Amino acid sequence: MRQGEVIFVANRISGFFKRCFPVSAGDCLKTLFGLFLATASCIILRELNPGDDYMAAVQVIYVLAAFMIARFTQGFLYGTFAAVAGVLLTNFIFTYPYWAFNFTLPGYPVTILCALIVSVTTSTMTARIKEQGQLQLEAEREKMRSNLLRAVSHDLRTPLTSILGASSAILENDSVLTAKERLTLLGEIHEDAEWLVGMVENLLTVTRVDGAVGANLNKVPEAAEEVVAEAVSKFRKRFPERVISASVPDDLLMVPMDAMLIKQVIINLLENVAFHTPPDTRARLTVSRQGKNAQFCVSDNGAGISPERLAHIFDGMFQRDREDHADAHHSMGIGLSVCNSIVKAHGGTMEARNVPGGGAEFTFRLPLEEE
């Protein structure tokens, strides 16, 4: 084998052992603590049940301990070690002669072997289930990245083309353009540049959100009305002509969140109303307590969303038709995809629907208490 092939194989083998047998001080403490609890429980059980009637329960307790250790640690190492240790502790502490190993009792080797097989199989299956869950999570992350890249390829190309066209028109026809025409072209360039800035902010947000389930978030209790007020203020600065009303609870509502990201979610939802509805459409933002969740709702009185699009609106591929209102080059796919990812990273849920009286409604819920 060539040197490069040898290095590649060695790296693959090293990676396999690191995944299956990771060394962690935290996992070591979990393993020792689990075995200690199992042993203490078995000793108490023996004191309460003199004789050998407790032996079956002892084996079940150690098998359960191996299962739980495998469940809450990484790789195969700790669950397998707990299984072997459980068998040896059963022999050493709970089998006559006590505090000594004895594998010569009639039928005992078979019993020990069966317990060892069950324990090792249990820990291995548990570790594999966790590994499959991790692979599924990685697949969801990759799907989200692919959707975002597809959306970005469209959303970046169109406004850049518009900026290029408008700037070329100014450079090539500056002497014949009127002041009004020049301001119109500059306004288009400015608007497209603002859209691109928002797109970059969304992409930077994706780097902070680690997939649909977990994320490196700075979650602290924040007053919902303050977050809403800042988001609405920023939206009104950009769209002063838009009519928007906000409603928050009378009582202080503290919600664990990354305030910067949640503000971006609210702003994105409000901007969708501005980009995809007629200028006279009214937007409404309401916040309320729903059981153990804080509910944020952004609605409008526009035409709503077609049913075929509604089912895939958070997939990152939602695009507008040419006949839709507002600027035809804007799409809402990447914004909603990022919003959904942010809410999921907070442990919340997000949904969209058409209001019976007309218009669309986007709702997301955030848990009020940390799990």
Automatic annotation (TrEMBL):
InterPro entries the record matches: HATPase_C_sf, HATPase_dom, His_kinase_dom, HisK_dim/P_dom, HisK_dim/P_sf, Histidine_kinase_KdpD, KdpD_sf, KdpD_TM
The residues that cross the membrane are 28-48, 54-70, 77-99, 105-127
Q: Where is the Histidine kinase domain?
A: 151-370
* Pfam families referenced in this protein's UniProt entry, alphabetically: DUF4118 (PF13493), HATPase_c (PF02518), HisKA (PF00512)
Q: What class of enzyme is it?
A: transferase
Alphabetically sorted, this entry's keywords are: ATP-binding, Kinase, Membrane, Nucleotide-binding, Phosphoprotein, Transferase, Transmembrane, Transmembrane helix, Two-component regulatory system
The membrane topology noted for this protein in its Swiss-Prot or TrEMBL record is: Multi-pass membrane protein
Catalytically driven reaction(s): ATP + protein L-histidine = ADP + protein N-phospho-L-histidine
Q: Kindly give the PROSITE patterns that the UniProt entry links to this protein.
A: HIS_KIN
Tell where it localizes: Membrane
Put simply, this protein is called histidine kinase
Classification of source organism:
Bacteria, Bacillati, Bacillota, Clostridia, Eubacteriales
